[in-house]
Amino acid sequence: MDIRRLESKDVTAAWQINEQGLPGTGQVSLEEMADLFSLSELPIGVFDDGVMLGFVLCLTPRTRYASLNYAWFNERYQEFLYVDRIAITVGHRGKGIGSLLYERVIEHAESLQFPVTAEVNLTPPNPGSIRFHERHSFTEIGVFSQGEKSVTMMMRSLK
Predict the structure, then answer these.
(1) Residue 70 · residue 58 · CB < 8 Å
(2) Which residues of the chain have a pLDDT value below 70?
(3) Nearest Cα to 40, choosing from 29, 32, 48?
(4) Distance of alpha carbon 115 from its chain centroid, rounded?
(5) Using CA of residue 108, residue 141, residue 61, residue 96, what is the dihedral sign?
(6) CATH of range 2-116; options 3.40.50.720, 3.40.630.30, 3.40.190.10, 2.60.40.10
(7) Which of 43, 96, 141, 152 is the most exposed place for a label (fewest CB within 10 A)?
């Protein structure tokens, strides 16, 4: 398996994997995915024989990204590496790909001296993602509700 920075040619594959992760990943159009690539501080993917198996997109504070969850962190913190989405193909979940991606995210955050932030759905529930984040030393720092959706806001502090 190879890990590399994502390029514009990878947008469609990332979008397809993102669709497999709904509702946990949050639905975006192909155009919105391309825009997320351009905003990302750390857009990386895991590939096997040139086929993307999973990806993560991370942003630093104060980009033009209009996500309310991202805004929640911007209102409270000056420095952070925000995991906007991490998604793994259905057939490759539970095989350590997410952890491999998070190792890179954590390394990058430490190089910036930023904590890592993320949110996980409470409504609809996503207990697997909460366990995944807790295994990677994330703790809940708040809950944010908007309409019928509710998320736990999580942070992994600097070591």
Answers:
(1) no
(2) none
(3) 32
(4) 14
(5) positive
(6) 3.40.630.30
(7) 96
